[in-house]
Amino acid sequence: MMGEMMGERLWPRGDRPRRAVVVLFAFLLPALFIAALLVARPSEAGERRHGLSAFGELKYPPDFKHFDYVNPNAPKGGRLSMIGTAGVITFNSFNGYILKGDPAQGLGYLSDTMTIFDQLMVRAWDEPDAVYGLVAHSAEVADDKKSVTFYLRPEARFADGSPLTAEDVKFTLDILKAKGHPIYRLALKDVVGADVIDPYTIRYRFKGQALRDLPLIVATLPIFSKAYYSKHEFDRSTLEPPLGSGPYRIGDFKQGAFVTYVRRKDYWAKDLPVNRGRFNFDELRYEYFADRTAELEALFAGAYDLREEFTSRDWATKYDIEAVRTGKIIKEELPDLRPGGTQGFFINLRRKKFAHPKTRLALDYAFDFEWTNRQLFYGAYTRTESYFELSDMKAEGPPSAAELALLEPYRDQLPPEVFGPPYVPPKSDGSGKDRKNLRRARELLKEAGWRFENGGWVNRDGERLSIEFLIFAPTSERFISPYVRTLRRLGIDATIRRVDPAQYQQRQKSFDFDIIIQRYVMRLTPGVELRNFFGSAAADASGSNNLAGIKNPVVDALIEKVLAAKTRDELRTAARALDRVLRAGHYWVSHWYNDSHRLAYWNKFSRPPIKPRYHRGIIETWWYDAEKAAKLAAK
Q1: What is the per-residue pLDDT across 145-159, written as a single tens digit (0 to 9) for each?
Q2: Strands of 16-114, DSSP E
Q3: 123 phi/psi in degrees, rounded to 5
Q4: How far is CA 452 from CA 405, 415, 442, 465, in A?
Q5: What proportion of the chain, given as a percentage, has pLDDT over 70?
Q6: Which spans in 84-241 are helix H?
Q7: What is the pLDDT of residues 303-347, one digit of tens each?
Q8: What is residue 619's predicted lDDT score, i.e. its pLDDT?
Q9: Which DSSP state fits 344?
Q10: Can you name the residues that pair with 601 across neighbouring β-strands?
Q11: Read out DSSP for 267-289?
Q12: How many CB atoms lie within 10 A of CB 541?
């Protein structure tokens, strides 16, 4: 989605910025799907269940045999070689749960699929937020929602054969809260602690009022070995493969070239209902390339098997080759039914020059999406309007009575437009030089206190308005450069600064940029991750995803309303109210979206007839088809 620059496996929605930080968030997304509740006394215990969801709904009964979107009889074997997070060109660590280092692709936290580490429960990808028992066969949420108890399977094992117990689960929580990436520490701040009831029973305790998501969060955390990390530093970047308990282990790798994961034949949970028909490849291999052109040429040469295309120009023009025409390479689009994502140019409010919302709004008027879409993207995209695009959380029309009830207490802190139809980006005439929009941008700059002097805009201190777009991939320049030319025509000193990936990551973590491109995907049940995206506490937390530096008490209050929602109707109302306030804040210049995964792969794989509704499903549900592979080899 992020214009030709980012794009990776987890975020398949159009041309997007290529960045490892999205990856960093991607590894957290699975954990943010869940919440755990403590049972302080037996009298407080709730119903023990085989799964959890935010509002209690579960599709699958206790005796279900497998998920509907898998083939339980899928053959095991073969290799899947692919591109992981596009734009990530190297790695130096197999630890992605800390702030240090550039983690390798495919460890689990880089996608929605855990490959190395098991979890207490795993996500069902045909439900909005349900999870079902893996390491834990069941869970019990206290009636007061202040705790959750998980009951572990005694047969759970780490890859070295050692038992996986409640002590390991407690250790995981403690180490993530103490030394984990700031994203984890923020997500777990209302998890007071965990108590080991016995070797196979663990109870989490919560505080505060936003309790709904906490059981899901703790249920989907990776589980680390306490014994292993008593001999290894947790908060250290390392290329020593960690001890896991999941379906794969790290195999061969070469820094900057490839990393492989080998399916464990002795995986303890391979026959559980949640795993039947999943993880069918004997080997997963992630390839690294320095640029996108080499990446595409390598696919055509057969150097790897599968690629998701994030560049609309390449999708429209580069695949007209013999291998595609004859069916050796399959080119297809699979529906992506998840929310459209929050992608755009994020404006750093920590910089004084962007403090006034009309300055930020002027930047929106200067961006000609209609021209960009037609001239650069072959008309493939639709402009993003909402932070909850393609979901029923998107605000539309005037606020409902229920939304007004949430917004009215803050009327004196909000711009008047919040109480009317939500802000939508301006449309242009598609010429690339829309005079009407540029005229409006100049008016907004004047209203924000800038004055035009000697060919540029200056503030009361005589400082010129300058903007630097921070990137690390040259492909981004394709759509940023026309925007930069328009800004210069407007009188703004706009430039593009391209740095190497390591420097980019460091500058992003420390918020050392004017404007940066990023994309997030909102969950179907938005929750605690909103604090990390938009909350004031995250604005100054190194490595957080609040790139714009939003510090707005009304946003904070509405996020808590989202977290406290007890029904989906309440959730929708609170999310729509939040969407209105965020859109009126002009914290970004939004990008675009599409609603499909654009895939190209060599014709040697098969998949179930049903695709998981909210997931690509490739690693989890596809399999190597020996018959197809033989026909392909014969050709």
Answers
A1: 999 999 999 999 999
A2: 34-35, 48-49, 51-52, 79-83
A3: -75, 140
A4: 42, 26, 9, 10
A5: 91
A6: 166-179, 182-187, 214-219, 226-229
A7: 999 999 988 889 999 999 999 999 999 999 998 888 877 899 999
A8: 93
A9: E
A10: 306, 330
A11: -TTTTSTTTTT----SEEEEE--
A12: 17
Segments in 209-353 forming alpha helices (H): 214-219, 226-229, 292-300, 312-317, 322-325
Residue type, 542: S
Other beta carbons within 10 angstroms of residue 429's beta carbon come to 13
Q: Taking the CB of residue 195, how many other CB atoms lie within 10 A of it?
A: 17
Helix (H) / strand (E) containing 253: strand 248-254
β-bridge partners, 592: 383
CA distance 136 to 150: 6
Provide CB contacts within 8 A for 323, sequence distance 6+: 300, 329
By DSSP bridging, strand 48-49 and strand 136-141 are: antiparallel
Which amino acid, one-letter code, is at 203? R
What is the token pair recorded at 122?
């795993």
pTM score: 0.81
Burial class (CB in 10 A: 0-12, 13-18, 19+), 464: middle
Alpha helices in 418-567 (DSSP H): 435-447, 477-490, 501-509, 529-534, 536-539, 553-564
599 - beta bridge partners?
Answer: 308, 332
Provide the 10 A C-beta neighbour count for residue 413. 12
Residue 473 has which token pair?
């991939």
Among candidates 217, 61, 226, 222, which has minimal Cα distance to 148?
217
Q: How far apart are CA 339 and CA 333, in angstroms?
A: 17
Cα 337 from Cα 389, distance rounded (Å): 11
Q: Which residue has the tokens 């924000």?
A: 448
For tokens 């909850």, the residue is 388
Look at the block and give the residue holding tokens 């991607």: 26
Q: Which residue has 């990446």 as its token pair? A: 295
Residues 6+ apart with CB under 8 A from 280: 74, 75, 76, 77, 621, 622, 623, 624
Annotate 450-483 with DSSP letters as a single string. -EEETTEEE-TT--B-EEEEEES-GGGHHHHHHH
Q: Are 319 and 331 in contact (CB under 8 A)?
A: yes
Kindly list the structural domains of the chain, giving each domain's residue range(s) and its CATH number in brackets, ordered by start: 346-593 (3.10.105.10)
271-280, 548-557, 580-589, 591-600: segment of lowest average pLDDT: 591-600
pLDDT in tens, 362-376: 999 999 999 999 999
Alpha carbon distance 469, 463 (integer Å): 19
Which residue do the tokens 């997070």 mark? 85
Residue type, 384: T
The token duo for 424 is 């939508």
Reading the block at residue 452, the tokens are: 């035009």
Type of residue numbered 13: R
Q: At 124, phi and psi to the nearest 5?
A: -95, 120
Q: Tell me, what's the pLDDT at 85?
A: 67
Token output for 629 = 């592979």
On whether the CB atoms of residues 51 and 215 are closer than 8 A, the answer is no
Whole-angstrom CA distances from 113 to 18, 27, 30, 620, 633 are 20, 9, 8, 7, 30
